[in-house]
Design goal:
single chain; mainly alpha; 6 helices
């Protein structure tokens, strides 16, 4: 019975039988992401100092949503984690982001500098966090706790691995 209710719910939501707000179709969603960029940059310019507050992107966007982007589809996230962090958290979020990028680059360059490892292995070690960083430009993969934890654990592994190799090389 539960599966039947869940299945019926999916059908109702996916076919928009209720006429409510739904997620945009794939083609429209891609076009919307491109159209949003100037608006997101403007929001960042307006709120760079203090931000609009954690988790308040959607209501802040609705306040200044341009009429040419109005549609029956609801924009709940910026579809760009990098910009949304600055919009929501302001300068503090931007500084944390810069610090995180600096640390990730430092660890990544440390891994790349390990000449004792084959190039393919070094590149493979960096692929997961780089993939999430790239995906964050057009979506919000790190908004799920499991993905965020995976990236943090992976970065901690890279640091541990690099420090362990550097320590072994000194002895």
């Amino acid at each position: 019975a539960g599966l039947l209710v869940a299945g019926a719910s999916v059908v109702v939501v996916s076919t928009d039988l209720l006429g409510g707000v739904t997620e945009a179709p794939a083609g429209l969603s891609d076009e919307l992401r491109v159209s949003l960029l100037p608006e997101l940059l403007a929001m960042l310019g307006q709120h760079w100092l203090l931000g609009v507050g954690a988790g308040s992107f959607a209501p802040a966007y609705q306040i200044g949503e341009p009429t040419n982007l109005l549609s029956p589809y609801f924009l709940n996230e910026a579809h760009n984690d990098w910009l949304q962090l600055g919009i929501e958290y302001g300068l503090a979020g931007i500084l944390m982001l810069v610090a995180g990028i600096v640390l990730a680059l430092r660890e990544g360059s440390g891994i790349l500098a390990l000449g004792s490892l084959p190039w393919v292995r070094r590149a493979a070690m960096l692929a997961p966090p780089l993939s999430f960083a790239a995906a964050s430009l057009v979506d919000y993969p790190l908004r799920t706790p499991s993905a965020a934890c995976l990236v943090l654990v992976w970065l901690a592994y890279l640091r541990h691995f690099r420090l362990e190799r550097a320590s072994a090389a000194q002895h």
